[in-house]
Specification:
alpha/beta; Rossmann fold; single chain; 14 strands; 7-stranded mixed sheet; 35% helix; 426 residues; 15 helices
C-alpha cells in the first residue's frame, strides 16, 4: 500500500506487507503527532478511547503480560480492559482479594521476568505503599497506575481530585527513588503508559502513572502509531556466569542486570538492607553504597534526559506563568491563550514528569518571571516543590523570587479557565 500524506490518517490493513517504522520519540511532548509533523510516521491508527482504556491498551502494546488488581472506582475499567484482552496476548490476569495482594502479585511476576502492572485509586494506593517501598529497594521493574479521586478516606469515589501528588512521591517510608508521570489527555494516557514501562524496565524502578477521574473516564479521539513504531525497552539480562551474578552489583550505568527467577541465576530479594548478592547485610559501607546507587542511577545525564519531561507553552517572553499538571493543565492552557489575546505575557509550564521534578527547565523559567500561579485540585501539594525550586533559583542567581500564588479546589469540581485567567490578570 503506497502511503501518501492524505493517507496518514488511515490504518494500514493487517494484510499489508510488513515494513519497519521509525520509532516515535517518547522523550518529546506529544510524540506521535510530532512524528507525523516531521514525516517520520508512515502509518497511524485512529480511534476513540477512554483514558483508562488508553492506559490498558498502551500497557499491552508495550509488552505487559501480567496484571493483578482489585476493582476500585474510578480505575476499574483498566482491570476490565486487561481482563478482556490480555489472554489473547499470551498474558495473565488475576483479580486479587485486595490492593495489598495485588501489588505483591505484580512484584512477584515482575521479578519472575514478566512486564507487570497494577492499577488502583485513592484508598487502594494507600494500601500499596508498603509493598511499593519493597519494590523500590529491590529495584523491581513495576508500573502502578493511580487514578486519583477526592480524599482523604473514601472521599469522592466518582469525583475528580489531585489528592495523591505528594503520596506518589513520599507515600512509602524511607529515602526511596520513584518516577511519577502525569498525563493530561487520553492521548498521553497511552503514550505515558508506554514510557512508564520503558523507564521501569531500563532503570529497574517502580513508575507511577498518575491520572485522575476526569481523564480516566472521558473519551477522546487518539492517534496511535503503528505497533512496530512503538519503542520497547526490555530489562538488561546478565550475560556472565551464574556464579558471578550479582543482582545488586555495580555496573557502569548503576543499573545491575536482572535475571528472572528460574533462569538459572541465583537471586535473593529482601526488604532488608542487602549487599550486592541480595542477602541481608548490616555493613554500613555496603548499605550506603546501595542506597546511594539506587538514587544516583536516575541522575546520570542519560537518565535525566529520558525521565524528565516538561511542556513549555508561550514561555519565551512570559512574565507571568501557570504551573499545572494533569486535567488542570487543560484549563490552564485555555487561560493562557485568552490572556495572550488580552495582551498579557502569560505562559504555561506543564510537568509531564512530576517526580523527579525537572531541575533544569523549571528553575530556569521560574528565575525570570514575576508571578507564578499554581492551580491544583488539592489544598496545595505540588506548589511546595515549585516554591523550593523558585527559591533555590533566586538564591543561586541573587534575585528576588517570583510571587507564587496557589489556586485550589477540593469540592469535586474542576478549576475553570476563567478562574486561572483572573489570577493571571491580578
Amino acid at each position: 500500500m503506497a502511503v501518501t500524506p492524505s493517507s496518514l490518517n488511515v490504518e494500514i490493513p493487517a494484510s499489508a506487507p510488513a515494513r519497519r517504522h521509525p520509532k516515535i520519540d517518547l522523550r518529546v511532548v506529544d510524540p506521535v503527532r510530532a512524528a507525523i509533523r516531521d514525516g517520520s510516521v508512515i502509518g497511524v491508527r485512529r480511534t476513540t478511547l477512554s483514558g483508562n482504556d488508553a492506559v490498558a491498551k498502551g500497557a499491552l502494546e508495550v509488552g505487559a503480560r501480567f496484571f493483578a488488581g482489585y476493582p476500585i472506582t474510578p480505575s476499574s475499567e483498566i482491570l476490565e480492559y486487561v481482563a478482556k484482552h490480555i489472554f489473547r496476548c499470551g498474558g495473565t490476569y488475576l483479580q486479587m482479594e485486595d490492593e495489598i495482594s495485588s501489588i505483591a502479585a505484580a512484584i512477584g511476576a515482575a521479578l519472575g521476568g514478566v512486564k507487570s502492572f497494577t492499577a488502583t485509586s485513592g484508598p487502594g494506593f494507600s494500601l500499596k505503599q508498603e509493598n511499593l517501598g519493597y519494590a523500590c529497594l529491590t529495584e523491581c521493574p513495576l508500573v502502578v497506575v493511580n487514578v486519583q479521586r477526592g480524599g482523604p478516606s473514601t472521599g469522592g469515589p466518582t469525583d475528580v481530585g489531585q489528592s495523591d501528588v505528594m503520596q506518589a512521591r513520599w507515600g512509602t517510608h524511607g529515602d526511596h527513588p520513584v518516577v511519577v508521570v502525569a498525563p493530561y489527555s487520553v492521548q498521553e494516557c497511552y503514550e505515558e503508559t508506554i514510557r512508564a514501562f520503558n523507564l521501569s524496565e531500563r532503570y529497574r524502578i517502580p513508575v507511577i502513572v498518575l491520572t485522575d477521574a476526569k481523564i480516566s473516564q472521558m473519551k477522546e479521539p487518539v492517534t496511535l502509531p503503528a505497533q512496530d513504531a512503538i519503542p520497547i525497552v526490555n530489562r538488561a539480562k546478565p550475560i556472565g556466569t551464574q556464579q558471578g551474578y550479582e543482582p545488586f552489583g555495580l555496573s557502569p550505568t548503576g543499573i545491575p542486570p536482572l535475571a528472572g527467577m528460574g533462569e538459572g541465576y541465583r537471586a535473593h530479594f529482601t526488604g532488608l538492607y542487602h549487599g550486592r548478592d541480595g542477602l541481608p547485610t548490616r555493613d554500613p559501607k555496603m548499605i550506603e553504597e546501595q542506597m546511594l546507587r539506587i538514587h544516583a542511577k536516575l541522575e546520570t545525564p542519560t537518565a535525566t534526559a529520558e525521565i524528565r519531561k516538561t511542556e513549555t507553552y508561550f514561555i519565551d517572553d512570559a512574565d507571568v506563568i501557570v504551573v499545572a499538571y494533569g486535567i488542570t493543565a487543560r484549563a490552564a492552557k485555555d487561560a493562557v491563550v485568552q490572556a495572550r489575546r488580552e495582551g498579557l505575557r502569560a505562559g504555561l509550564l506543564r510537568p509531564v514528569t512530576l517526580w523527579p521534578s525537572d531541575a533544569e527547565v523549571l528553575p530556569e523559567v521560574l528565575g525570570r518571571v514575576r508571578k507564578v500561579v499554581v492551580p491544583e485540585l488539592n489544598l496545595g501539594q505540588y506548589i511546595t516543590e515549585i516554591q523550593r525550586l523558585a527559591y533555590e533559583s533566586a538564591r543561586r542567581n541573587q534575585i528576588v523570587p517570583p510571587e507564587i500564588v496557589p489556586l485550589n479546589r477540593v469540592d469535586m469540581q474542576l478549576i475553570s479557565p476563567a478562574q486561572i485567567l483572573q489570577e493571571l490578570r491580578s
